[in-house]
Each structure stands twice: as structure tokens, then as C-alpha cells.
Design goal:
CATH class of the largest domain: Mainly Alpha
EC number: 1.11.1.-
Distance between the termini: 18 Å
Bound molecules: protoporphyrin IX containing FE
Strand content: 15-25%
Largest sheet: 10 strands, mixed
Structural class: alpha+beta
CATH topology of the largest domain: Peroxidase, domain 1
GO biological process, one term: cellular response to oxidative stress
GO molecular function: heme binding; metal ion binding; peroxidase activity
Number of strands: 22
Shape: elongated
Number of domains: 4
Keywords: Heme, Iron, Metal-binding, Oxidoreductase, Peroxidase
Helix content: 25-40%
Number of helices: 16
CATH architecture of the largest domain: Orthogonal Bundle
Radius of gyration: 26 Å
Function: Destroys radicals which are normally produced within the cells and which are toxic to biological systems.
Length: 587
């Protein structure tokens, strides 16, 4: 029997209650490197061709350039499902309703750390959090940037990071961190969702930020610094003076300055509708709009960094006025210009990463996306379950959606999906969800590829299809070996397809190390085929025992991983231990 509590790193309560709660969220690892597209290579390839074309126009045919352009267009718009990392990033980026953090920014004035009327909002905290994470960047030496370093208490305790907005943000956004979603990617998506969900423009998102393992050098601008210091600070971060004006105005479309961390800027307001005494930057502090500029230009602004009683800390006044108000005037005159400028600047801010970090292309929503597709072995049958998302589609009771799948022996089968729900709450784009019926597949025939039809129109990823891996699957004979609540004990069974070169099978448990960074703890299955083999699969089994004394809030769940021909795969499943049935005879 494998004692997971001993095999696991000692992660018991490394960072207090927040870390305890984040460990509830368990998902999958960087092992999925086999299915990550190599964007670096594609970009390098394209770059070389364009450079050659510029130098030797006759050598590179128009046709070839057209091909390169096409490759760029395609890679900028979609990726091929499945890709564990891109699927997870795409989901967090677009499926707001599927993720816990939607409730923290919807409606936009939610501030879950206090009752209503606090004057604060999670949305404003998340935007400021992203800026302060990025603002340590040094364009000269490539250090700092969006790398999640603001999660370290050493960084949070610096005067430049005054207030509890960062610890609040880290606590909430860590809920979405896992082997596929770095802390910094979660911070970036959190800021994007806050902005888009609260009236802001659509912001291009690239994934792949790499988390720092310790705090960065200080470098976030502070209000008492003078204009030259701010221009120099933004230049060090990689922003021109006019970009500085824009980015500050865009960020300060949300939130305000609190009395508590900034008593020299904002007095106690003694307002029951603003219990944390926040003097807001504009009159629409939980909504993105150009009021930050119109109120500034019209002279009605109450922005505490413009009309604060202490002129030393009126940094927005100095910054906004540093080009004779030209930029702010243009923003005041055009909400569209303000929105498009902010979309560009926010994206630049979020894409400012330490040198060497290679971000993906902009991640766009897949028009047709299977979700949570799972296979489970049940005797001689494979049970296929899952969902399908149709993007940018409203509910239509008359729509017929079918799944078609090819098995391994030349057969083709199909079934109709049931309409499940329509998400209309995404900031802009509705999505219709469909559920697979319980599908029983002959285990010997297995499954290779799915396709879908929507009202008869074929959706098959341009002929590639949607691949399903039936080589190593969870087996429904898995069960709890005792009803004890501590330790929790179970036997996990996995079906390994006959004839497949499987060198290793293991349970994966997503958790965090002491840094904290997401890790996957693996528990190997002994390479024996102990229980009755089905005609198509042999069964590998392992016992687990988990001492939950130090992790009372954790959901103990595992995914199934394996190495086949030296390549790691995972089912990305969430096989919850307490959801397993009791084994026959167990008490
Ligand atoms: C010279 C540059 C900047 C200075 C001196 C500055 C200063 C400040 C100060 C003193 C606060 C009050 C914080 C609190 O009370 O908790 C604040 C809030 C905020 N800042 Fe800035 N800021 C700057 C640039 C930016 C930028 C570039 C962004 C984003 C793009 C940004 C986004 C925010 C947001 C969203 C808040 C509101 C936070 C909340 O209400 O919880 N700031 N800023």
C-alpha cells in the first residue's frame, strides 16, 4: 500500500489558511509537454522566411510567403484539440461560468473580503495586482515582469505594494492555478476577466508565463515620486511616456485610493456607503469607461492622485499633464480611442515577461470544443462521457448536435448530444453546451477519433478530427477499501490496452510545493496485471492511503498518467476518492 502522505512533499499548511484552501484545487502537470505546440519554432520559422524575403526577394517566392502568412494566420486563430495546456488556458480565458472566480467579479462591485458598501472591488484589486507584478520588469537585463512574484510576502511587504489587495488577489486567483496554468497566467487572466467583465475592451491573451521562484527586485512606482522618476520607471518597464499616461489612465478607470494604507492621501471618509474610505479615481469606479479622462479634462475629477490635499502625492496630475494634456484630451474626446488604446496597453503590460519566456500565440476560443471527455472501463465496455461547447452560439432548441466516432477496427458510430446549458453571462460571447449521452463502446473496438455535426454541418477540425486516447483508462472497479474517514483508503484500477508499450502507470495528484508552485505528485502502479484481464485491457491496481489530518479541506482526487513509448500522457480526470463505491466486503 502506498502511503501518499509520506510520498508527498511536506506541503502541510506552508502558507497558512490560503494555501490550505488552494490545495483543494487539484489538477494536472507540465508533463503534457508532449502536446504543447512549439510556438517558438513556428515563429522562428516565419521570422527567418520574412528576413530572407527582405534580403533576397527573388529567392523567396510569393507563393512561399503566402504559405508563411497562412501559417501565421492559422496559428494566431486556433489550435488543435486536444492540448491539455491550451485547453485549460482557453477554458479559463473564455469559460467564465465554469470557473469559481466568476463569482468574485460578478457583479463588478463584489468585494468578497468585506460586506457590501466597502468602496472596494475584487476587480480593481486584480488589475492593480497584475500591474504591480509586471512593474518590476527591467527591459535592459530582462529580469522581472509578469511572473507571479507578487505572491511572495517579501514583495507584498514593500512600501511600493502597500495594502492587502495583493494577498487578497493571490488567495482568490490561486484557486485556478494548476500544472497547466501558472500563477502569472492566472494573474493575467484575472485582470483580463475583471476588465472585460466590467465594460472594458477585449484584450488579447497569450499563455505560458513562467513563475518566479522568489521575489523580484523592487521597482513599482509610488505616488510621492516626481515625474522624471516615473518616466524613468516606466521606461525601465518598457513603456514610453505616452504609453505611461495611457496605462495609468486605463488602470485608474477602476478603483481608488484607500485611507488605511494611504492615510496621507485619503482621510477617513466616515461614509457608511464606503466603509473602507476609498476615494475613487472617477465616478464609475467599478466600470471601465473614459470618465477618468472626461472628469480630469472637465475639472470635475475627484481623483485623489490629481486633486489630493498633498500635492507631493498627486502623481496622476503630473503624469496626465506631462504632455500638455494631449493624451488625456484625446481619451476624453473618444471613448473608442480610449478603449482601443487600453486594449493594446493592457495586453502589452500582461505580455511583459522575463526574457527567455516564450508566450503562446494569442489564444482564441475554439468554435467547437469537447470538454472533460472521459473514458472509463466497465467490464467489456468503455463508457464515454463528455461535453461539447459551441462558441458564439445562442440556445436553439431545434439544433441537432451529433457525435460521430471511429473505432479502431474500421467501424463508425454516432449519437445525438443533449442540450445542457447556454452561457449568456460571458462578457461578450454566448456559448451553448451539449452533453454526451451515456455511451457504451465495445472495449475491443475502442475509439480513435470523434467528429461532430451541428445541424448536419461537419465539424472535424479541418479533417484532423478530435482524437480520443483509449490506451490507458480509469476502471470502474476502483473502490474504497474502507469506510474510515481517516486515513482515506482506496484501490484504484486502471485498464491498460493490450499490445500497447506501456512502461509506467501512475496516479497524479495536483498540489503545491513550498515555494509555492504547482506540482504533481505521482504514485506508481506496480507493473503487475493482477486482476482479471478483459479481452482488450489488463487491469493494473494500486492501493492508496491518505492521512487527511493536515488537509481537512482538500478534495482527494487523482488523474491517471502513463508513459507509452517514452511519452507521458494523462487523462486529466478528476477521480475523487470519496466518490468511489465501497469495495465488496469492505467496512
Ligand atoms: C506612477 C504610476 C502609478 C502610481 C503612482 C499608482 C498609485 C496608486 C495608488 C496609490 C493606489 C491606491 C491603492 C490602494 O489604496 O490600495 C492605486 C490604485 C490602483 N492602481 Fe495605480 N498607480 C500607478 C499606475 C497604475 C497602473 C499602470 C495601473 C494598471 C494598469 C494601476 C492600477 C490601479 C488600480 C486598478 C487601482 C485600484 C485598486 C483598488 O481600488 O483596489 N495603477 N494606484
Amino acid at each position: 500500500m502506498t502511503d501518499l502522505s509520506r510520498e508527498t512533499h511536506d506541503i502541510s499548511n506552508p502558507r497558512g489558511p490560503v494555501m490550505n484552501s488552494i490545495r483543494i484545487v487539484l489538477r494536472t502537470l507540465i508533463d503534457a509537454d508532449h502536446d504543447c505546440r512549439d510556438f517558438a519554432k513556428i515563429r522562428a520559422y516565419n521570422g527567418v522566411h520574412f528576413a530572407l524575403a527582405a534580403l533576397f526577394p527573388r529567392l523567396i517566392s510569393k507563393r512561399m510567403l503566402g504559405l508563411v502568412l497562412l501559417v501565421q494566420l492559422v496559428t494566431a486563430h486556433a489550435y488543435t484539440w486536444p492540448s491539455s495546456k491550451l485547453d485549460a488556458l482557453e477554458s479559463l480565458r473564455f469559460d467564465l461560468d465554469k470557473h469559481a472566480f466568476a463569482g468574485f467579479i460578478r457583479p463588478c462591485d463584489v468585494f468578497i473580503f468585506s460586506g457590501p458598501n466597502s468602496g472596494r472591488s475584487d476587480a480593481a484589486d486584480w488589475i492593480r495586482n497584475a500591474y504591480h507584478d509586471m512593474a518590476t520588469h527591467n527591459i535592459a537585463d530582462g529580469t522581472g515582469g509578469m511572473d507571479g512574484s507578487i505572491r511572495f510576502s517579501e514583495e507584498q511587504s514593500r512600501p511600493e505594494n502597500a495594502g492587502d489587495g495583493f494577498s487578497n488577489t493571490v488567495g482568490l486567483l490561486f484557486l485556478e492555478v494548476n500544472r497547466y496554468i501558472s500563477v502569472a497566467d492566472a494573474f493575467a487572466i484575472g485582470a483580463i476577466q475583471a476588465i472585460e467583465n466590467c465594460g472594458g475592451p477585449e484584450i488579447a491573451f497569450r499563455g505560458g508565463r513562467v513563475d518566479a521562484t522568489g521575489p523580484n527586485s523592487p521597482g513599482v512606482p509610488e505616488p510621492q515620486q516626481d515625474l522624471d522618476e516615473h518616466i524613468a520607471s516606466f521606461a525601465r518597464q518598457g513603456f514610453t511616456q505616452s504609453e505611461m499616461i495611457g496605462l495609468v489612465a486605463c488602470g485608474h478607470s477602476f478603483g481608488g485610493v484607500q485611507h488605511d494604507p494611504f492615510p496621507d492621501i485619503v482621510p477617513e471618509l466616515n461614509d457608511p456607503n464606503n466603509t473602507q474610505s476609498v476615494q475613487h479615481f472617477d465616478s464609475t469606479n467599478v466600470h471601465f469607461d473614459n470618465n477618468i479622462a472626461t472628469e480630469y479634462i472637465s475639472g470635475t475629477t475627484q481623483n485623489p492622485l490629481v486633486v489630493g490635499f498633498n500635492d507631493t502625492t498627486n502623481s496622476d496630475k503630473r503624469i496626465f499633464g506631462s504632455d500638455g494634456n494631449a493624451t488625456m484630451l484625446s481619451f476624453a474626446n473618444s471613448p473608442d480611442l480610449f478603449a482601443s488604446t487600453c486594449a493594446t496597453l493592457f495586453a502589452k503590460m500582461l505580455d511583459t515577461v522575463p526574457s527567455g519566456v516564450q508566450l503562446t500565440d494569442v489564444i482564441r476560443a475554439l468554435p467547437v470544443k469537447p470538454d472533460n471527455v472521459q473514458l472509463a472501463l466497465d467490464g467489456d465496455t468503455l463508457r464515454l462521457s463528455g461535453q461539447l461547447r459551441l462558441w458564439n452560439t445562442t440556445g436553439d432548441v431545434n439544433r441537432t448536435v451529433r457525435v460521430i466516432w471511429d473505432d479502431r477496427v474500421g467501424g463508425t458510430h454516432n449519437a445525438t448530444l443533449a442540450a445542457a446549458q447556454v452561457d449568456t453571462n460571458s462578457p461578450r460571447t454566448p456559448a451553448a453546451w451539449y452533453s454526451f449521452p451515456v455511451l457504451s463502446l465495445d472495449a475491443v473496438a475502442g475509439i480513435e477519433i470523434m467528429r461532430f455535426t451541428v445541424n448536419g454541418k461537419l465539424e472535424d477540425q479541418d479533417g484532423v478530427g478530435f482524437a480520443v486516447d483509449d490506451r490507458v483508462v480509469f476502471a470502474n472497479t476502483s473502490c474504497r477499501t474502507s469506510s474510515s474517514s481517516n486515513p482515506l483508503t482506496a484501490r484504484y484500477d486502471v485498464g491498460v490496452r493490450s499490445g500497447v508499450n506501456v512502461t509506467r502507470v501512475y496516479l497524479e495528484e495536483d498540489t503545491f510545493d513550498d515555494i509555492p508552485l504547482p506540482i504533481v505528485v505521482k504514485t506508481d502502479f506496480p507493473p503487475t496485471q493482477s486482476t482479471t484481464p478483459t479481452s482488450a485491457y489488463s487491469i493494473w491496481s494500486t492501493d492508496v492511503s491518505v492521512d487527511v489530518t493536515s488537509r481537512p479541506f482538500d478534495v482527494i482526487q487523482f488523474s491517471i498518467g502513463a508513459e507509452i513509448d517514452g511519452v507521458k500522457i494523462t487523462d486529466n480526470g478528476q477521480h475523487v476518492l470519496t466518490a468511489l463505491p465501497l469495495c465488496p466486503g469492505a467496512t
